[in-house]
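Chapter review: from sequence to fold.
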Amino acid sequence: MLKVERLNVFYGQSHILREVSLRVPPGQVVCLMGRNGVGKTTLLRTIMGLLPSRGGWITFDDQNVTHLSPDARARRGIGYAPQGREIFPQLTVLENLSLGLLAQGKNGGIPAEIFALFPVLQAMLERKGGVLSGGQQQQLSIARALVTRPKLLLLDEPTEGIQPSIILEIERVIRQLKDLRTVSILLVEQYLEFALGLADRYYIMKKGAIVSEGTTQELQGDVVKRHLTV
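The token string follows.
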């Protein structure tokens, strides 16, 4: 599904991602973990095409997408729910969802399964995004990424600043998507219990490089202590 090979990314002269390689197999949830500032968001933004790379390549569905624009990657089936949600506060819930379709070159109504996954949004279609709670905005961000039925969903810190009840709702949605096996998920998450309860595999980043990887069942306490705990 997704293959990242020896990816190098710079901000100016700062070397942010260093020879990063990872895999997201079809239908699986892969969690990318690490302390703040190690390059996790940079990696997701590079996979989405929002940042250029200076070395390495990205393959999606057996096609090299390294130099494609973000909209071209979206049309090929990559959805992205960014850190901080980035919904449009002056637009309604319906308009935010519809923009998700338009930005990816698709027309038509919002798929019914979006409201099955996020029933709260159906009751709020005419509300402006800016008046929603943080948890509702996060659900809207994920829903907007899902409206085009992507093959791969990039989720950046979906539990950040969210109340526990909404975290449970987001966990339910990810679990449903995982059970359907129709979308692969690359999840950036620091809430360890949440991540390991959902993921099939993990990668841990430190100083812009992958330092540990494996199945979630293989993740050892000493690795957590060395690379994840503060």
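Two observations follow directly from the output. The chain has one domain: 2-86+152-227. The radius of gyration is 17 Å.
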